[in-house]
Amino acid sequence: ATGTFLCSKFALPLMIEGGRGGRVINMSSLAAERPKPYVSAYAASKAAVVALTQSMAQEVADFGITVNAVLPGDVDTALKQWGLQLEAMVTGLAYEEVMSA
Length: 101
Hints:
The protein is mainly alpha-helical. It has four helices and two strands; from the N terminus they run H-E-H-E-H-H. The longest helix is centred in the middle third of the chain and has 21 residues, at 40-60. The radius of gyration is 18 Å and the shape is rod-shaped.
């Protein structure tokens, strides 16, 4: 959420000064609304992006600026693989069993 905040802190004043409105699209994750075990810090940071987006949207609406967030679902990344491996280790299940759940 820090990067999202800092980018907006820089861009929004310029957009307001320009007087032509605009669009801000922030990247979050479905983990913000449907968190899974073993990725609590990630889920919390993505929930912070959603809350920040909603707050900013209200702050700049009168300037013709919309602020929205995109919440993509699961993407096969190193973080996801790490989470699955951790879940397998904690639960005692085979990695393949966790992957198919």
